[in-house]
Specification:
By secondary structure, the protein is an alpha/beta fold. The chain contains 16 helices and 21 strands. The chain folds into four domains: about 1-185, no CATH class; about 215-305, no CATH class; about 330-380 and about 435-625, von Willebrand factor, type A domain (Rossmann fold); about 390-430, no CATH class. It has helices spanning about 1-15, 30-40, 65-70, 95-110, 125-140, 145-160, 170-185, 280-295, 370-385, 405-415, 455-470, 505-515, 525-535, 560-575, 595-600, 610-625; strands at about 25, 50, 55, 75, 80, 85, 90, 210-215, 245-250, 300-305, 330-340, 345-360, 390-395, 400, 425-430, 435-440, 480-485, 490-500, 540-550, 580-585, 605.
Amino acid sequence: MEEQVGQIWDKLVTRISEKSFKESAVQLSEVSKSLGIFFRALGGDNGLRIVESMATQHHAKRNWKQKLAGTGKYIELSWQDEDTLHLPKQIDVFPDSDLNKDLYYWLAAISAQTFENPSARARGLQGWFVSCQILTQQILERFPGLNSRYHRLVQAYLSIRNIDEQFTELEQAQEHAIARALNEPGSMDSIPTTLYAPKPVLLWPHPNPPEVANFSQKNVPENENEDDQQSESSRPKSTDKENKRRNAERVDMPDGDDGLILHRFESIFGFGEFLNINRSTDEDEEADQDSADKNADDMDFLSVARSNQTKGGKVKFDLDLPADSVDEVVLESDIKLPEWDYKKQILQKDYCSVINFVHNAGEEGVLPENLRRTARKLRQQLEALTTKRIWHRHQSEGSELDLDAYINYVGERFSGHKVEQPDLYQQLRSSERDLSCLLLADFSLSTDTWLSNDARIIDVIRDSLFLFSESLRNTGDQFAIYGFSSRNRGHIRFNTLKEFGEAYNGLVRSRIQAIKPGFYTRMGAAIRYAGSKLEEQDSQQRLLLILTDGKPNDLDRYEGRYGIEDTRRAIHEAKAQGLQTFCITIDDQGGEYLPHIFGNNGYTIIRKPEHLPQKLPILYANLTTNPA
């Protein structure tokens, strides 16, 4: 009975303390796509992803209702870092859903602006107060159409901002300064300070954006031992729960001997105690995951420390990257390639090293029995699609009359000119295509993931390479096939499966059959090296097809925005060389980063990986019969 009464009381005081309008709430997921277009149209960084922001503590004064209910400590605000634009998961500030949606667009607009006045970037409350006004001025001057929307938001926001609030004289002056700064951006040079931080301003970015730790990835400093890093193949598929972002910091490992000191009685309700919890092993990791997630959700701030104790119980041998194998013949080694550093905006010369090798199976392979029927069908379809027939005009004989030639002939006759024997016919004839295609496949460890009980991603890629080669065998198109993986910038493996000018035969089939997952995906260097191979071909159309299952990544700083920007730069370099590029991926999250790398029409996502082998040849046919 007491528990039921407590629950009813908790719901009652919480409802009284909240000032939200759930019935008119707008979710970020509902507007994220259009927000992304709007953000970039206003000059926002094309490489930023839009994600949900986490709630942070604002340290502002709370009213008695919020203190009674224990609410009002945290709030979701907008901010951006070098990789992402953080926006609230939902906005339910106004009773009108249109105003809530307008607030999303305004936050995207103010995030798209850059500071034109460097002096406004001063830290602290005063710097934030002035900077937000300058940003607002920039938006309203550049985009006058947003004036009415902005002032409508301001009036609605100020009317509900301080309902039931009681302020001291100094706090009222602070609120007056904020209200005037919102109504007349640029009119206030400073804001009065009080014992508390000012109430959060929902129309402005976060005054002190937190450092975000994303625990769906391995957050390890660059200088730590690489052997302790988590391999790519062992990373589970990302989910919404795993992608939750939390406020965290990296600290030194406590020794646990300091004890607990309570400097005042109230601290018993608010202390944080260090717990030395061992990393779970592979066997109990899944069982403990739910418990770990729950513990993390209960903590306001996560502090991550690296223990000096080693993890025992298992001995791991890294056999995926052997020494010089008798089955691998090195064609080229220590090939130096540049890499783009987007932070410094420089192309680092001779930064990466590539080794080009070929697998020497020793036996001629055959096409797997389960692919032969599909190969025959695709071969017939591709031969029909890729056979180009064009009209040859001004012929002395042909199947149809050339109307243009006939009209010119009649006009010349009527004008009195003497015309020799005219060529008045046209003939439809087949024409050979002048095309070279290089297929570059991702062989990183993530391709070792199982799609079903019978097949992994690497198996699907292998079948795709088989069917692609079988389909092109009789078309006359020149094509080459390579695979790649990497382990840091100094070891990028480039696996030659078929070179230009080499016949597709049993030897090539044996190389395709022998492919296996490697390490990581340093895509920029692989594209540059593949582009140099394709550039050597003297063809009218040169197509670079990239087949991958995820975004660019490696053990070092190539993870995240750095790898995406380097890959984007490599694609621009390839296009400058006259190459046509296109990416085929089975990554469901590819829509977040592929438009930035390849452009809106430069990629496709295969939602069902098992359909890739059949779709790859048809995609090739569409790209080569209707080039972009």
